[in-house]
Amino acid sequence: MAAIDFKVRVVKSPQGAVATVAEVTGSIDATTINQFQTIMDKLVQKGVKNLVLDCTNIKYINSTGLGTLLKYVDTFSGVGGNLLFIRVPSKVMLVMEMLGFNALFNIYEEEDEALQFLGAGVTEAPEATPVAPVAPVAPVTPSVAPRVAPQRVPSGVQPRPSVAAGGQVSFPMEAECSRCHQKLEIPGAGTFRCPRCAQMCTVDGGGKTAFPATRLPAPVEVSIPASSTFAGVVAALAEGIAVTMGINSNKAQSIRDNVGGLIMKMVDSSYRADATSAINVLLIPTDNGLRSEIVDNGTGLDASAISSAADDVKVTPHPVKGNVYTLLYRR
Amino acid sequence: MKTVSFEQLIQEVMQAVGAAPVAARAAVEAAVKQIRGHLAAGEPVELASDITVQPSAGVTVAQAVTGKVYRILLAVGAVDFFTNTMVQRLTGPRTSVAVAEGVDAAWKKVESNDPDLVIVDSTLDNPRSLAAKIKQTLATSLIAVILVYPEGTDPNAVDGLKVCEDESLVEPFDLDELVALVEDELTRKEQEEAFFEHEIHFQLKTTEQYVEQANDLIARLIDQVKMSDENKAAVSVAFREAIDNAARHGNKNQENRIVDIIYLLDKEKATITVEDEGDGFDTEMFVTRGREGNAVAAARERNVAGRVGGLGIMLMLKCLDDLEYNAVGNLIKLTKFVA
């Protein structure tokens, strides 16, 4: 009987985030899946919120294992934690990539990078430096504050208060929205909503700010016929997701134009408007912004077609066929 | 059965007609040449009212047409009287027979002599290992292999993971039967060489251990193909899914049920068929769902329902260039193009 082995230890990042690292040895497939689930369930029951799976010694993950990993990514996310993957062997990575799960999984090369990610989740108020005043945010009553299940930002880490000279917190104080990075002027203790992205923020009398972790909309994966009609549909979809994520309307509009424009170029030059072919599009909301991954048939586009409003552009060969155009639109 | 040699035939003709040795040799050689010419043209030759040589006479005809000398290797435990008898019976104007004692010596001869056919005798220690090695190696896999089984053995039995030979004989057997098999196999081999570069057929009992061995075997076979590492890995991933489905869903993990696998490599593609002994399933529905579905959504749906799996066909479709099932749904064909 095939077996799977877990070696578990608890670590703390320099920023103070606590995580459990599990070194997994064996394959995660139909023969080991029950054992794997039993151990993972125990970790969840013990209250582990941030779990880093060291995949160095994972020999193989099949489709059953992959589906189960997604279940635990969702489980940890649902309790305000994270399931992260480090040192993923190429064979395992290939399986993740084939089904597009790599876009949903937090994958890092090394343990310190994963811990850094968890540490970055510590929401800190900026130092008291002068900023242009913004309109005071409208206070809301604590009773209407939503119970948000954090998705990517780890919870349980206290933000650092903004402290004025002399050690006393003075209101109005400044803070930065954890979602859209808008500078906020906080008039006093209470619960507030960011006027730009509607993110909630709670400030106590000592100036400690607490933002609920960002809850991102689900990713969208679509295959569309290579036709201009459908390019517009995907463009509108991208804009809708951007708005839902709290990206401002101007930027969301530019994302729409950019995604739509790129697909149109593909329809015309790569596919010659052959609507019997399909273009695959992934729209993935992330903490950094909206990432779009568009796969063509390998004919390729010239550089001018992909120069865009995107903040980061990458073109990589798809493992099966064609190229993947990855564009990141930051918040 | 004794084979009359060409020299003996000339002697007999000399005595029968009182001809000089040179004249008798010239006459017999001329007759053989004419017969070969007719056979090469596909014409039967009636030597007497009760002796007709047909163009379908296997080795003789193939040799007459191609002029090739076929190399046969006889792998035995130790040379004995029966070995010599087999050598004598198989040796002809267009066939040469070499003998090797032991698996290691036989493998060395396979590598150095590039035989067309290997007869693996039951006296060999672990004869199956030699057959398996020949079939697993890209450079030697098209060599025809005839395995001789000891008396009372069932050549179709599968005990673990079995790399299949091309043909088999169970002792005791008639030498004519062996010669006929050799002729058939040489003809088949020559035809298949025109299409394939690697061909291997293996079967396994449905256990975790043998399924894992099959995965390792496919990985080794694919590793010999000139394709990118990513494509090699993709084939292995797809095969894992296919054999896992065959073992779990098809054969219901019942050890006595067999999974049958054929791996074929030609210039364009690698093809693997995986067949189980189950009742099959509605392949059309699952393949359509696999082609059109969203993997993440499908996985979440299964997870919410408290179930696992359901992504295997989707993963295979992503890894392969083509995927086909038979009508019943108990045989899957995986295709990956080499280029």
Structure, explained:
The complex is a heterodimer of chains A (331) and B (339). Chain A is α+β, with helices and mostly antiparallel strands and 331 residues long. Chain A has three domains: 116 residues, 2-Layer Sandwich (Transcription Regulator spoIIAA), CATH 3.30.750; 93 residues, no CATH class; 111 residues, Heat Shock Protein 90 (2-Layer Sandwich). In chain A, the strands form four sheets. In chain A, strands 1-2-3-4-5 form a five-stranded mixed sheet, with helices on both faces. In chain A, helix 1 runs parallel beside helix 2 and helix 5 packs antiparallel against helix 6. The longest helix of chain A has 22 residues. Chain A starts with a strand and ends with a strand. About 14% of the residues of chain A have low confidence. With 339 residues, chain B is of the alpha/beta class. Chain B folds into three domains: 48 residues, no CATH class; 135 residues, Rossmann fold, CATH 3.40.50.2300; 140 residues, Heat Shock Protein 90 (2-Layer Sandwich). Chain B is built from twelve helices and 13 strands. Chain B has a six-stranded antiparallel sheet with strand order 7-9-10-11-13-12. Chain B is elongated. The N and C termini of chain B lie far apart (52 Å). About 3% of the residues of chain B have low confidence. Classes of the chains: A alpha+beta (331), B alpha/beta (339). The interface between A and B is medium-sized, with 30 and 29 residues.
